[in-house]
Design brief:
The structure is a single chain. The chain is an all-alpha fold. The protein has two domains: about 35 residues; about 30 residues. Helix content is about 70%, strand content about 0%. It has three helices and no strands. α1 packs antiparallel against α2. The model has no long low-confidence stretch (mean pLDDT about 70). Keywords: Membrane, Transmembrane, Transmembrane helix.
Length: about 80
């Protein structure tokens, strides 16, 4: 059995995809909603890629929030138990 692995897209492929989407949108939307679509498309292509440190910090913050919520629920049920 052969498993094909796809490589991440190159910058040229991303630019070609971006331009083809804009061309199709300008032809099909005929300026009704094209500017909004272009703005959304530009923003989606400009989103930054997270690095490992940011992921680690987000994990730490989420874990601390989860811990506080868990402890709060535990103490509420413990003190108000009949």
């Amino acid at each position: 059995m052969c498993i094909l692995k796809s490589a991440p897209p190159t910058n040229i492929q991303l630019v070609r995809t971006y331009r083809s989407l804009l061309r199709k949108a300008s032809n099909e939307l005929k300026y009704t909603n094209f500017e909004y679509f272009r703005l959304r498309l530009n923003n989606s292509f400009k989103e930054p890629v997270e690095d490992d440190y940011e992921k680690f910090r987000k994990y730490q913050v989420c874990y601390i929030i989860y811990l506080f919520i868990y402890l709060f629920i535990y103490f509420v049920f413990f003190f108000f138990k009949k």
